[in-house]
């Protein structure tokens, strides 16, 4: 990843394409689109091109998005200081305020917890204990690995979970005969389970945050437990089905494998305090519907408690993945002006949606999200698709029965179901780097999981989610 | 990878040099091996590598060399910031007690391999030293998973606040 200052030829080309994309809406008059809508389209174009071609890091594009919106589209910006018939300018605080959106604070809480868990090896020790009941049969060991990986990645980043689980499976792989398909099955089980597990909770992975953030700007608040109730049953089914797929594609030749993860829970005062805070926070999160205290409010507990005790010191605070928060905030921010300028609605109304059935729309959005996020960042895919779905639902263009929450969920979940290529997700890249498989193995298995995911999302959207949402 | 991480061997005896190069064959694909016959040549090679935007990950150095000896060379290299980061290993049978202590204290010596070495022993040291080097100096550890200590690299990634995006 080179910086802007010493860009390569390819990066320069991408930057120029982005700038052209930015300028075009300024130069041509699009009938039916407001002036502010033109500007929003400019910003959307440069953001989409930069996010897709990545001449600069994706979080840098998010920062640019917020800057451009404040400069051009806010009430304090240069173009629209006054309200007009077709655009009431948003205050700049709306755009920068996305950085303190409740979902961002929730993520911050998740980051802090994950950091403390890693510092005191809580993740490794939990893995050790949780894997014990799965015995030594390779089939069940793979299942155990997948369940534990999914569970951890629901609360930690999928990537960090994958890296940790690699330390568990690499010794097993090293002891397995070179030609045994078990090696491939093992190496794929971890990233797949991590990708899928991230769907389970709001803090599991950034696309979830994009969905929840976008809905919150529409005045819809999704509680931690609501999300889990909607997403976790899907995770369980897709996870188990992926296990079958992996066993079927890569039938283990070994009949017995031994796990030897040594270690014990740290028992010093600081570690015990971390376990306590971890336990309390997660417990409060997963019981939100019982006590009603919002998960973002609860998230402040680990942030404050771990800082006050010095467990989260200055160095560790600095090392938190702040860029992810900017990435998500930029996405939510882009959605705000696509809505308020009428751009999203204009994109939507150019197609006559009423001729499509809602099941067709669910499949279409899910499929597009899966395809996009196989090649692009999952978060970016969700960010680009969500505003369209939001407008489709709020404008009523898609007709009755097209629920805003439902279609947002379809997009958010589908963005995490892409795992065909090493570039699809960072966990896939880690698994591929071990050299235990060829790309074709990942592509075949990832394709099967993708198709399965598409079917499951459609079924859940038709039968299960409406049951919970209504 | 545009930027390469080199292994540098400093050794004046041809047979020993050939043996080392042969034993390091499996690393060539990932870490190109360069050689120098004496201290001055070593400095030139290092300058050349650094000037071209590459790095020196590991220096395997003999002690008894014509001109400046190995330990003094390693101590001198601590003055070059980029070379100070390189992992330094003495490969020798003849460094005395005092020289070795000097190398540990002043050149940040990372390992001492006594001649004669075995291929396995050498590979183990190279893997271990280069793993530590890339963990300390590289942002992306994935390209090294297949040749270096993948367990240790994974654990470093785990502790590195990796995120999804």
The overall strand count of chain B is 5
Distance between the termini of chain A: 46 Å
What is the strand content of chain B?
15-25%
Assembly category: heterodimer
Q: How are the strands of the largest sheet of chain B arranged?
A: 2-1-3-4-5
What is the 3D shape of chain B?
Answer: globular
Largest sheet of chain B: 5 strands, parallel
Rg from Cα of chain A: 23 Å
Structural class of chain A comes to mainly alpha
Mean pLDDT of chain A: 91
Listing every helix as H and every strand as E from the N terminus to the C terminus, the arrangement of chain B reads: EHHEHEHHEHEHH
The low-confidence parts of chain B are none
Residues in helices of chain B, as a percent range: 40-55%
List segments of chain A where confidence is low: pLDDT < 50 over at least 5 consecutive residues.
Answer: none
What kind of sheet is the major sheet of chain A? none
| Beta fraction of chain A | under 5%
Largest interface: A-B, 37 and 17 residues
Overall mean pLDDT of chain B: 91
Order of helices and strands of chain A: HHHHHHHHHHHHHHHHHHHHHH
Distance between the termini of chain B: 22 Å
Describe the structure.
The complex is a heterodimer of chains A (470) and B (165). In chain A, 70% of the residues lie in helices and 0% in strands. Chain A has 22 helices and no strands. Chain A has helices at residues 9-27, 35-53, 58-73, 92-97, 102-119, 122-131, 138-153, 158-175, 182-197, 206-217, 224-249, 269-286, 288-291, 295-308, 314-318, 322-340, 343-349, 358-375, 378-394, 404-415, 426-433, 439-469. Chain B has 165 residues and is α/β, with parallel strands linked by helices. At the A-B interface, helix 5, helix 8, helix 16, helix 19 and helix 21 of A face helix 8 of B.
